[in-house]
Amino acid sequence: MPLRRFSSLLVAVLLFSITASAQIRRLNEETGQTETLQYLVGGYLALNYNIHAPNFGALPGFPSCCASYSNSTSIGPAFGASFELPLSDVLRFQVRLGYSSMSGLLHSTEQIGNEPVLSDGPVPIEERQPVTVEHALDANLPMIILEPTIGLHLFDLLWLTAGVRGGYMMSATFDQKETLLAPEGYTFLDGTTVRNAAAADIPNANSLQLHAVVGIGYELQTRSNISIVPEVRYFLPITQVSDVDWKVQSFQIGVNVRFGMYTPIAAEINNDTVYVRDT
User: Fold this and answer.
1) Which phi and psi (to 5°) does residue 6 adopt?
2) Pick from 59, 8, 11: which is nearest to 203 by CA?
3) pTM score, whole prediction
4) Edge to edge, what strands does the sheet with 194-201 contain?
5) Which DSSP category does 61 fall into?
6) Which of 27, 7, 10 is nearest to 95 (CA)?
7) Residue 9 DSSP code
8) Rounded distance, CA 49 to CA 63, Å?
């Protein structure tokens, strides 16, 4: 069902881009002709700085002694194709189709008092000790994204972008464990320093992820039809990763390289009739 909604959104965006258009003109210095910008097509490459804000300590159905994971950050790739359609001199409809990663490692360090452990010796002896453990949950969250936005020309070569991003999670898996850090020379009662280990799909994951988007870019023109846009974008989460309290916001820094499609404007020839009168 989420994939069907994602496909419907893609169709709606494409129909909008076909029906809306505006004319933006430039003078081609090589030919001396006035040209009209039809559209821009290209690709972008970026890095996501993901900020995970979890408010849970265990996923449903998987034992964990963690009270709550701490906020954490991660770096992930983002890339894809871009398309822009002029709506006016200062507005452009923009859409991107690509890949983006929200993957990250959640962790939390906890002090536990009077925990039963084994001394790691020739003859292990059960004791109760204050221990330090680390809870870790490594989440894999790759997405195919569709990102329709509106670009507003502010001044000079600066553009403001705002819109929404829909992401379809290709998979949503995790790998968790609890590791005994201190005291040294001790293990859990099973003779290892790791417990509550699990690796599986994230229960009740929301395969459709929605984010509000705002960004800013600086459009660098070249002598050819190619333009280069260094940009920064921020993604505010609208949906949770799953049915636990877990959202991921992102800052994205990257570059968008586009090729502008221009068509020359045909010269208008006015045939005026000249009347000569004899006086």
Assistant:
1) -60, -45
2) 59
3) 0.83
4) 186-187, 104-119, 126-140, 173-182, 194-201
5) T
6) 10
7) H
8) 30
Paired tokens of 195: 């417990």
pLDDT digits (tens, 9 = 90+) for 214-253: 999 999 987 788 999 999 999 999 999 999 999 999 999 9
Read off the tokens for 230.
């260094």
Q: What are 92-135's pLDDT values in tens digits?
A: 999 999 999 999 999 999 999 999 999 977 888 999 999 999 99
**Neighbour-count burial of 229, counting CB atoms closer than 10 A to its CB (0-12 exposed, 13-18 middle, 19+ buried):** buried
User: What is the Cα–Cα distance from 169 to 278, expressed in whole angstroms?
Assistant: 84
Identify the CA nearest to 31 among candidates 213, 225, 211.
Answer: 225
Amino acid present at 115: E
118 contacts 100 by C-beta, under 8 angstroms? no
Which parts of 102-207 are beta strand (E)?
A: 104-119, 126-140, 142-155, 158-169, 173-182, 186-187, 194-201
Residue entry with tokens 């029906």: 19
Task: Classify residue 271 as exposed, middle or buried by CB count within 10 Å of its CB (0-12, 13-18, 19+).
Answer: exposed
E strands, the chain, in order = 24-27, 34-54, 72-86, 91-101, 104-119, 126-140, 142-155, 158-169, 173-182, 186-187, 194-201, 208-218, 220-221, 226-237, 246-264
